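Retro notes (design track)

What went well: tokenization of the new backbones is finally stable.
What didn't: we kept losing track of which sequence belonged to which structure.
Fix going forward: every design gets posted as structure first, then sequence, in one message. First example under the new rule, 450 residues:
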């Protein structure tokens, strides 16, 4: 089906301040100049559960408070995902394993299967290679002096890590990047980034065909140690993922792993460039990195909003919401909720509270790759700022009018100095330690099973 643009989904009840604020929040052009935090703050204060009439769609209730996002996220019986999670009406195929778009009990079954590829052991074993990628990125930007934080850092580590996870050979990685960008750009109105329906269909077809080639190679020559192989071997109650389901998961991981971590890191680099004192803290204090990761996730909120369909009449904050209506959980707003976060509008890597909803509000749809994303962000911060302190933005970041995710297509930065932190190193894969002349440390947090 064709995908309507958000600007064509006219908000019909704009005769109130809340209606006008909701229209601003849903207009992708708004985000080209930055997120509408003032409008979101007014909605949280005066209309936290606000009904919107969108052309051709059910009444949609915009939820902007943290507790309401949590409530909806954790009640999959009342708030269903099977009709889609964006402002497009879809129905999940009966055999689909695409986790964001299916409900229990099917979701529970497939989550058990897919979790086998994301055990703590599988996540932790990625760190040595991830750290090497991060160091190569740092070496590359040092040679450039001035560079683009999105393309040279954020997009690069996201691509390399996801390719490693999926077992994609080096020569094929740019194809995966191109396909995931095209499919992940669904709904973007910026003509430089929005795919045509033909390009979108071709990208999906090519990605599925490529996944089939990877699967066939492993079936013929034996499984390897990547997550795709783990999923091929995964079994629950005698059931395994079929080829279509493997294709779906390959697509999901390629898009989510590429786009969300890239956007979080890009926003984080920009925020840190505006807070040189916090950059300096990261450069000298390794213990500051983990809370910084959580603040980056809160601040960036890579997925802006998801929707659910109401399955039975429900009341939220005194508002009666009938079955069949939609609710739109605005994660970006929830992560600036003043009732939850002290000084919510301030960026602070020492923030003691990390109750953000960057990975969703809990429940069955909590992000499968949360620990993987945290590891990737931590490793990049650990390698970047001690070596290249004093990063400053030299040009205005460029946005791309996202539909349900926050993004930037470019951000020029330069570094003040380079500090070499490591010499020749060896990696002990059994202990996951990196050892070098000038650098020594495990840098491993115990990842939790997803």
């Amino acid at each position: 089906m064709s995908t309507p643009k958000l600007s064509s989904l006219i908000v019909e009840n704009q005769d109130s301040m809340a209606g006008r604020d909701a229209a601003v929040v849903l207009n992708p052009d708004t985000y080209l100049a930055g997120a509408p935090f003032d409008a979101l703050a007014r909605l949280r204060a005066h209309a936290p559960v606000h009904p919107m009439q969108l052309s051709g769609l059910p009444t949609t209730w915009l939820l902007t408070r943290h507790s309401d996002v949590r409530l909806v996220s954790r009640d999959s019986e009342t708030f269903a995902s099977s009709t889609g999670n964006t402002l497009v009406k879809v129905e999940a195929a009966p055999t689909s394993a695409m986790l964001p778009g299916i409900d229990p009990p099917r979701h529970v079954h497939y989550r058990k299967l897919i979790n086998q590829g994301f055990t703590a052991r599988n996540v932790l074993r990625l760190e040595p290679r991830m750290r090497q990628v991060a160091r190569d990125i740092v070496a590359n930007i040092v040679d450039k002096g001035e560079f683009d934080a999105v393309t040279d850092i954020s997009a690069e580590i996201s691509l390399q890590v996801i390719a490693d996870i999926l077992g994609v050979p080096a020569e094929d990685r740019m194809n995966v990047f191109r396909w995931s960008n095209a499919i992940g750009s669904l709904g973007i109105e910026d003509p430089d980034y929005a795919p045509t329906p033909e390009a979108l269909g071709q990208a999906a077809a090519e990605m599925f065909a490529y996944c089939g080639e990877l699967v066939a190679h492993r079936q013929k020559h034996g499984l390897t140690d990547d997550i795709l192989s783990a999923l091929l071997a995964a079994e629950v109650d005698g059931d395994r993922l079929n080829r279509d389901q493997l294709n779906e998961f390959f697509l999901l991981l390629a898009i989510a792993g590429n786009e969300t971590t890239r956007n979080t890191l890009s926003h984080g680099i920009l925020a840190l460039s505006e807070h040189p004192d916090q950059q300096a803290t990261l450069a000298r204090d390794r213990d500051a990195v983990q809370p910084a990761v959580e603040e980056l996730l809160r601040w960036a909120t890579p997925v802006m909003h998801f929707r659910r369909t109401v399955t039975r009449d429900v009341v939220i904050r005194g508002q009666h919401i009938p079955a069949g209506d939609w609710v739109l959980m605005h994660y970006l707003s929830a992560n600036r909720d003043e009732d939850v976060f002290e000084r919510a509008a301030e960026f602070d890597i020492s923030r003691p509270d990390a109750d953000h909803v960057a990975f969703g509000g809990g429940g069955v749809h909590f992000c499968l790759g949360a620990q993987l994303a945290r590891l990737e962000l931590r490793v990049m911060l650990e390698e970047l700022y001690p070596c290249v302190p004093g990063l400053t933005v030299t040009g205005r970041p460029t946005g791309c009018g996202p539909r349900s995710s926050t993004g930037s297509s470019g951000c020029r930065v330069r570094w003040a100095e380079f500090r070499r932190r490591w010499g020749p190193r060896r990696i002990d894969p059994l202990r996951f330690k990196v050892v070098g002349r000038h650098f020594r440390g495990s840098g491993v947090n115990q990842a939790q099973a997803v």
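Added context from the reviewer: Residues 243-273 form the longest helix (31 residues).
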